[in-house]
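Appendix B. Chain record.
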Amino acid sequence: MTEVKEQKADGTAPVAEAPALSLSGLQFFFADIARKVIVWHESGSRSFENQVLDLQEAPSAEALRLLTQEDRTTILRLIQGAIRNGKSGPYDVGGGVDHRIPGIPIMAYRHELEDGKVIVVCFPSMGEGAGNPGKIALGLAPILQHFVANSNRSVCLIDNFGYVRFASEGFLQSFGILDAKLILGRNIAHIQNRVGRTLVSLTIEALTRRASATGRGKFLLASGDTTELIYNAMYFLISGTFGGVLFSAGKATGDLDYTRIFDMCSSPMLVVNTQNRMIIAANKAAMKSYHLTSEHISQNAITDTLLHPKSYTSLLQTAEKGIEVPQATVVNSLNGKSKTKRLKASFLSDDKVPKLVLEARS
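Structure tokens predicted for this chain:
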């Protein structure tokens, strides 16, 4: 299909909108005083598009148009201060209008080029101090592990560059992640398909604003399910070099961990999303009995792995009719062997998409 682009009234092609500076992922910017232009660089690691952009530039008014009037005034004051005094700031930019959310501190320095032109270089100030952020991150992991070893709380550490450095067993279970290697060392903006959109959005907001957040809410998981958590996303900074977000959450229903109860059941149990037929959960008995691996969860439809489409449809109809008698069904285990199992099919109620629970009976 041919793409149709709008034209202006005079028939000419529309002029592309000038780029605008964003505080999320901002690395630095400088103001070319003579040209009245701002040049900046942003990293895409904290954006959902994951797009890493090269240097961008636009006239000052256009470059700052996405910022609030207060932020635009602050940046102009920062630039003017550097022109007069050689150095200016740090001034907070990006705080909430009610000033309850801390902004991003920005420094500015005047620099004179060989031809006499003056530019002002501005960048987020992380504070002063030395240290190795990598060593600090590695040192925090065993400390966190010690405190949450016997807890079912969801605890996750994301560094100030957006990379996941630690995840507790409770976090892995709550978010349906069967192997920590799938998320550790990965940028959280790149693993939305693992940890879900809500957590990614919350983390990026905390990193961008450099502000903590706490509350109670529903987290959309990668499987399409939701889990209600009482959470605390704490932004922190250590020695001016290493910081990030420490996410800690517990079930809104209390300390009872239903995932552990699910795994304690000796009968193989599967949970299937009826909309896309994906296996979204399997207890330990099912993993062992059907030779499932972590790759099969949330990535394969049950009709592509364990069940023939006709068998799945029959079980779905059984659940819809409320029949509690287990049905004899051929299950194709992932070790290449097929066995007839007696499967009881029932629905797990959900606000959006019903889930089919398949329990093997002896």
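Further analysis of this model is presented in Appendix C.
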